[in-house]
Amino acid sequence: MSDEPFLARWSRRKLDAKSEQPPPEPAAVQAPEPVPEPPPPPELPPVESLGKDSDYSAFLKAGVPQELKQAALQKLWESDPALMAPEVMDLHMGDYATPVAEVVKTAWRLGKGVLDAAELAAEEEEKAKAETPPAPPESDS
Prior knowledge:
Strand order of the largest sheet: 1-2
Low-confidence stretches: none
Order of helices and strands: HHHHEEH
Structural class: mainly alpha
Helix content: 25-40%
């Protein structure tokens, strides 16, 4: 190891590396290729006249200003309530604050593991017995 501090050695090596590199050769200057102009926007109907059954595909083509495209899509979403409603099968729409035990019925029991069919039937029978009121005692009069 040398007695030279780390940062001084690092700085010296960076300067040496820069001085050893040959200067970059000037690249041949090329004229930039002309960018083709986007096609003019197609003749579009006024956004106010659009409805649920209108064709919105013309608003999604290239060359349509972003503001006009957004206005047409907003009109589409407003025109059909089914499009504004949340997706029924969306997994992120559920209320995960509810207890799982009330939502999911399972054969897993704490301390017992997974119950088989006979054990589940016996448990249901016990539950039914507990829910039915006892019969009043018969009196011999």
